[in-house]
Description:
By secondary structure, this protein is α+β, with helices and mostly antiparallel strands. Helix content is 54%, strand content 7%. It is built from 16 helices and eight strands. Strands 1, 2, 3 and 4 form a four-stranded mixed beta sheet that branches. Strand 2 and strand 3 (72-75) form a beta hairpin. Helix 9 (271-284) runs parallel beside helix 12. The longest helix has 36 residues, at 370-405. The protein is elongated, with a radius of gyration of 37 Å. The termini are far apart. The relative contact order is 0.07.
Amino acid sequence: xxxxxxxxxxxxxxxxxxxxxxxxxxxxxxxxxxxxxxxxxxxxxxxxxxxxxxxxxxxxxxxxxxxxxxxxxxxxxxxxxxxxxxxxxxxxxxxxxxxxxxxxxxxxxxxxxxxxxxxxxxxxxxxxxxxxxxxxxxxxxxxxxxxxxxxxxxxxxxxxxxxxxxxxxxxxxxxxxxxxxxxxxxxxxxxxxxxxxxxxxxxxxxxxxxxxxxxxxxxxxxxxxxxxxxxxxxxxxxxxxxxxxxxxxxxxxxxxxxxxxxxxxxxxxxxxxxxxxxxxxxxxxxxxxxxxxxxxxxxxxxxxxxxxxxxxxxxxxxxxxxxxxxxxxxxxxxxxxxxxxxxxxxxxxxxxxxxxxxxxxxxxxxxxxxxxxxxxxxxxxxxxxxxxxxxxxxxxxxxxxxxxxxxxxxxxxxxxxxxxxxxxxxxxxxxxxxxxxxxxxx
Length: 442
C-alpha cells in the first residue's frame, strides 16, 4: 500500500477502521467505499469518517516527498493520495514549521528595522519648519482647500488622503501627493495603522492612503489657527504656478464628467486613451471653459454609444474612437469660432474645495473661458512685477537722496558696492546699508 500509517490509538477496532479506510490495491484503487465503513459506533454519516480516521492515525503518502527535505508528506484524506511518485507542491509539516519560525524571526527583525527608520523620520520631521509667508502660490491654494475639508486638523492635527475626497472632482489625492513629495506636508508615523510602513528589498515603503500627514509649523508662529491666517493673507504673484494648478484641477473636472458619461453607456477607456484625452483637454482649456468641454464630452460619448449599435461595431471599438473624436471636435471649434454650448455642473458632480478656493480668490469657475483665466493670472504677475519695480525705484530714490545729503556719501556708496560684490541683490544691498548706517539716514 502506498500509504504508510502511524497509529495514534491502541484500540483494535479504531486501528482496523483506519486500515480499512486507507487500504488500496497495487494500482492505488481503494478496496472499500467510505459508505461501507459506516456505521461505526456513533458515526452514521460517511462524511464523518475521514475526520475520525485522522484522530486514529497519521497517514503518509509514500508517493509524495517534501520539496525541501525529501521526507514523507502527511495527507488528510483519500483525495490527497498520488498514484505515481512525485515531489509535493507543499513542504512537510516539519519544514513548514521551520519556515514559519524563520519567517516570524525575519518579521521581528524587519519590524525592528522599520521602527528604527521611522524613529529617524519622526525626529527629522519634528525639527522641520516652513516660512508660511514664502510658500509658493499653488501650495497656498492647495493648503487653503485642504483646510476647508479637514479643519481644524491642518492647524494642529493629522489627516489622511482619504479625508480629502471633497478636495477636487477627480483624483484629489494628486494634489496631496504633490505636497507630500515636495515636503510641504510631512508624515507622522506614530499615528498610522500597523502595517502602513514595511520593508521591500531593503527600502522603506508605505501604503499611501494610510499615511497620516501634517503641515509643519511656521518658522515664527508655529502651528495653529493664527499661523494658518498667514495663508489667507498671501499675495499671489506667480502666474505660471497658478495656471498649472488651474489646468491640473480643470482637467480633472472635465474627466470626471467624461467618466460619468462613459459609465452610463458602458464605455471603458484604457490608460493610453485616458492619457491622450488628458493632453487634448489640457490644450483645450487654454481657450475654452470647463463647461464648454463638458458639452464636447457629452457629444462624443453619445456618438460612441450610437456607433456601438451599428453592424460590425461593438462597445470596445466605439470607445476607442473617443480620444480622436474629442480632438477633432476641438479642431473644428478652433476653426469655426469656438464652442457654442456649455453644460451646467451635474448635481452629483462637486466642484470641490479647491474649485471653491479658485472661485473665492480669483472669481474663476467652470464657466470661465480658459483664455480669460490665463489672462487673469498673467495680470496678477504683471501687477506684482510693477509693484516690485515701483517699490525698488522708491527705495533707490530714497537711498540716493539720503546718502548724498548725509555726512559721508562716499563711505555709504563704498559699502553699497561691497554688498553688491558679496552677491546681494540691489534691493538687499540698499537695505543692508540703510541698517548699517542708520544714523546717517536719520
